[in-house]
Every structure is written in structure tokens, then in C-alpha cells.
Design goal:
The structure holds two protein chains of two kinds. Chain A is mainly α. Chain A has two domains: about 130 residues, no CATH class; about 80 residues. Chain A is built from twelve helices and no strands. In chain B, the strands form two sheets. In chain B, strands 1, 3, 7, 8, 10 and 11 form a six-stranded mixed β-sheet that branches. A five-stranded antiparallel β-sheet of chain B has the order 2-4-5-6-9, with no helix packed on it. Classes of the chains: A mainly alpha, B alpha+beta.
Chain lengths: ~240, ~260
């Protein structure tokens, strides 16, 4: 640890002194050893007081990172900014072990880790929001197509569908793919939810144009619609 | 001159997408009205795709925590290779990884990823970002709970700890009090017959909102957070807890209270 050579005996300071010293935020960075010691006590000694001080001291900074990374100050899906800040701290609290602290050279090492936790909190919120959006889209499609196909779906059936194993479903989809092109279209459209235009951007050498991707996708879905294994898995009422 | 539409191939794909999104495209509507069987088949395909999407979306993508662990070279070699293989075929994870790396190396705001050479200084946070972050952070209702040092004799073990570690001991039925702005939180842990722990809490506030709930997050990465409803008298109970470190989050209507580090024993 870089601060071990420091003149002041930080280890002997009371938490209140450390908090005060850390809050000074001096241009010459002489406050850093105070903050570092706060982190050490929180992580190694599991001091509640020091954890509270760290949350208090850095919550605005974490918020700033989240704001900057997300490029928005509105909530992502149902995750509010508070939740993302909290998620970032939670991730840090869970992941930053005493061993990692041992390897940390300076305060900035620790804060860099906290910064990466802020990023992953935003990524997590984005993934969750997209999942919710897709589930809603699925419900809307069901409502519309049910009106045409005069099929009905009970709450229990819906639950069964959502409890399906994605791995098992992917095995069936993969089985319906005729070749590598099909497989790429299936993965990028069904798993990554990319539109054909974006799939073409990903693989300009593989596909001639967007129309080819649409055709492959349509044929694949036709095969899936007729697939006995998928019918076994989802039942006639779904397909 | 009007175009004669005989099959779906006669339409541009965007036209069908737009129609599905509710755009008024009379030529598509007229075609579907005249060809109900084609419309039905088209809707079935859309339904199937939506179903598949909802189940398969990123089903095998590593979690953001794995991305972070990879960035910090914390993954074992085998997992790291596996992750790299996934990156090669997943544009979404590749984009996330790139955005993580890019953001960690951005020069603004401060707290850089090259810590030893570029010590963090909040003073170098650009003023406009600092001002914006401050403005929103001021509105942020995230409150950190502070332990109220116990004074009663039965809490002596806690009170005597110079650094106030909130250690709740099931056998002794220890209780601790925290304060967070105008809300006080009392926590009591008891040992259950099965050997697990039961955490009972009560919130004391002048105006306790409805639909409050709390979340207990275990420090152990593989353990799952548990949630409990806070009833209208401010009480909540979480059963069957394993001893260990937890983070308690209480979500009120306009405020989140966090007890950052709670040791249940």
C-alpha cells in the first residue's frame, strides 16, 4: 500500500477523524490517506461507521458516473437513479474483498473499482429494462394474434411459457437451423434481438442484402412453427 | 398508378414493421383485409418471434458482474477464455465490454483507471458535470443509516466495540438501532429452531408510507437477496437467514435507506 509510508499514524485515528480528513478533499490529495484508511476499516474490519461514511462521501460521485455513463438522468426501465447508485455500492461491497484492497496502490485504485461497479449497475438496469420490454411486446403480440386466431391463453399457461428453459428452447431452434447462416440469423435475431439491417452490418461478407436475412428468418420461423419438439414444449395453444 | 399487392413479399419489410407498430398504412390494411389467411399466418409468425425473443433474449450472456471481473482480470483462465469466445459471437456483450473499457479510460470525470499514476481528485471533475451531478444528487433520496451507539447494559458487547460494528447475535437476541434522517430502524435477530436466523425490524417514522418493503442483500455472491414487505405498523420479518454479512435496503416511497454492512451471527 502506497500510504504505509505516510507520516501520520492513520491506523490510530478515530473514525470521526478519518471522516473529517477524507472530507477535506484537498487539491494536493493529502486527504487520500484518510479516505484509504476509511476503506480499509470498512472492508477489512467491516466497520459499519466507515461503510456509512464511504457511502455518504462517494454517493454523489457514483451518481455522476451513472449519469455520465447512462447519458440520461431519467430512470432506466423501472430502475431509478437511487437504485442504480445503490446497486453500484452493493456490487462494490460484495466484490471488493480485503485481498483486492491489499493489491490497491492508492485511493484511485479503489475508486476505479467503484467506478466499474457504477458502469455494471447501469448495464444491469438496461438489460432488465430490455427484458421487460420484450415480455411486454410478447404480451401485445399475443393479444393481437389471439383476436385473429381465436386462441386463448390462461395465466397459468403464460407462466409455464416463461418458466421454460431457454437452453432447451435454444437446442430446438439450433436443430431447426439448416446451416451456419441460419444459425447466425437465429442467434442475432432471437437472442440478441437485432433487426436484419444490424445483422447485415455485423456480417456484410456473409449476407448479400437485408432481403436475404428476412427470407432466412421467415423460413426459419416457418420451420419452427411446424417443429414437433417445439409444439411438445409449448403446446398447441401457444403456437 | 396503384400497385397490386399479391403477397407479403410485395411489401417492404419496414412497411410491415410500421403496420405492426400501429402506423396507419392503408395499402397494408387493405391487403390484410382482403387476405385474412395471410394476415393470420403473419401474426402467428410475429407471435412466435416475440415468444422466442422473450425467452431467449441474452439467455447465455455472462452477467455484467462477469464483464467487470473480466475487465479486472479476476476470472480464472478457463472462464476468461469462455468469456472471450462469447464476446466473439455476441455483439451486445462486445458493445458493453467496449463501453466499460471506454468509460474506465475516459479522462473526465475523475477517478481514473490508472490509479497509481493519476491519483483521484474530485477537484478535477469538470465543473459542468459536477454541477449537473450535484443538482440531481441533491434530489436523490438515498439515505445512509447510522448506528445509534447502544447504551443499555445488554448491548455492552456492541457498545464496547470502539468502531461500532453492528453485530447482531442470534443467541443473545441482540437488537440495534439505526437512524436515517427522520426514520429510526430497530433490528432484532433471533435464532430459529432450525439453526437459521430470523431478522425482525421496525421502522419508526412520523409518516410511514404504504407499500414500503425491504431487501436484504447477502455479501456472498452466490446467495440471493431476499425481500420482505413492511406492514402498516412499520414491521418486517425475514426468516431462515444464514449467518453472515448483509446489506439492508429499505425502499420507501420517496426515499431509500441503506444499512451498508450488517453482520448477522
Amino acid at each position: 500500500m502506497a500510504y504505509e509510508q505516510a507520516v501520520l499514524p492513520f491506523a490510530k485515528f478515530r473514525p470521526e477523524q478519518l471522516i473529517e480528513g477524507c472530507q477535506q478533499n484537498r487539491p494536493d490529495n493529502s486527504h487520500e490517506p484518510f479516505c484509504f484508511e476509511l476503506f480499509r476499516r470498512a472492508i477489512v474490519e467491516k466497520s459499519e461507521q466507515c461503510w456509512s461514511a464511504i457511502y455518504q462521501q462517494y454517493k454523489n460521485l457514483v451518481y455522476g458516473w451513472i449519469l455520465q455513463f447512462a447519458r440520461t438522468n431519467v430512470q432506466i426501465g423501472d430502475a431509478s437513479s437511487e437504485e442504480m447508485v445503490l446497486d453500484a455500492f452493493t456490487a462494490f461491497w460484495r466484490a471488493f474483498t480485503p485481498e483486492k484492497l491489499n493489491n490497491a496502490e492508492r485511493l484511485a485504485s479503489i475508486l476505479a473499482y467503484l467506478k466499474s461497479c457504477a458502469v455494471t449497475a447501469v448495464l444491469q438496469a438496461r438489460r432488465k429494462a430490455e427484458n421487460i420490454r420484450l415480455e411486454t411486446a410478447w404480451d401485445e403480440e399475443i393479444i393481437e394474434s389471439d383476436a385473429v386466431a381465436t386462441q386463448t391463453r390462461t395465466g397459468a399457461e403464460s407462466l409455464v411459457l416463461h418458466q421454460l428453459s431457454a437452453d432447451r428452447l435454444w437446442t430446438i431452434v439450433d436443430h431447426c437451423c439448416n446451416d451456419e447462416k441460419d444459425r447466425i440469423v437465429a442467434r442475432l435475431s432471437l437472442v440478441a434481438n437485432l433487426k436484419p439491417r444490424l445483422i447485415l452490418e455485423q456480417h456484410p461478407d456473409l449476407f448479400a442484402n437485408v432481403a436475404e436475412i428476412y427470407a432466412l428468418s421467415r423460413n426459419l420461423k416457418n420451420r419452427l412453427g411446424r417443429d414437433a419438439a417445439l409444439r411438445d414444449l409449448w403446446g398447441e395453444f401457444i403456437l | 398508378m396503384s400497385h397490386a399487392y399479391t403477397s407479403l413479399d410485395d411489401f417492404q419489410e419496414w412497411e410491415l414493421e410500421a403496420y405492426a407498430d400501429g402506423e396507419a398504412l392503408p395499402h397494408v390494411a387493405v391487403f390484410f383485409e382482403a387476405n385474412p389467411a395471410i394476415k393470420s399466418s403473419w401474426l402467428r409468425q410475429r407471435k412466435l418471434e416475440a415468444q422466442l425473443n422473450s425467452v431467449l433474449y441474452r439467455f447465455d450472456c455472462p452477467s455484467p458482474e462477469t464483464l467487470r471481473a473480466y475487465y479486472w482480470r479476476e476470472l480464472p483462465i478457463s472462464e476468461s477464455k469462455q468469456f472471450e469466445n462469447h464476446l466473439e459471437q455476441c455483439p451486445l456483450c462486445s458493445a458493453e465490454m467496449a463501453s466499460l473499457q471506454g468509460f474506465m479510460h475516459e479522462t473526465t470525470p475523475a477517478a481514473q483507471a490508472e490509479p497509481a499514476h493519476r491519483p483521484y481528485s474530485q477537484n478535477s471533475f469538470p465543473q459542468n458535470w459536477l454541477a449537473r451531478a450535484q443538482e440531481f444528487a441533491d434530489q436523490m433520496r438515498l439515505v445512509i443509516a447510522n448506528l445509534v451507539p447502544p447504551v443499555a447494559p445488554q448491548f455492552a458487547t456492541v457498545a464496547l466495540r470502539g468502531d461500532s460494528v453492528p453485530r447482531l447475535q442470534g443467541a443473545a437476541q441482540t437488537s440495534l438501532l439505526f437512524e436515517a434522517d427522520d426514520t429510526d430502524i430497530s433490528l432484532l435477530v433471533q435464532k430459529e429452531q432450525s439453526g437459521t436466523l430470523r431478522l425482525a425490524g421496525q421502522l419508526f417514522a412520523s409518516d410511514l408510507p404504504a407499500n414500503a418493503f425491504c431487501k436484504l442483500v447477502p455479501a456472498h455472491l452466490e446467495a440471493v437477496p431476499v425481500q420482505a414487505q413492511v406492514d402498516d405498523t412499520g414491521n418486517f420479518v425475514i426468516n431462515q437467514l444464514q449467518p453472515g454479512a448483509y446489506q439492508l435496503v429499505i425502499l420507501l416511497q420517496h426515499q431509500s435507506i441503506v444499512v451498508p454492512n450488517l453482520l448477522l451471527e
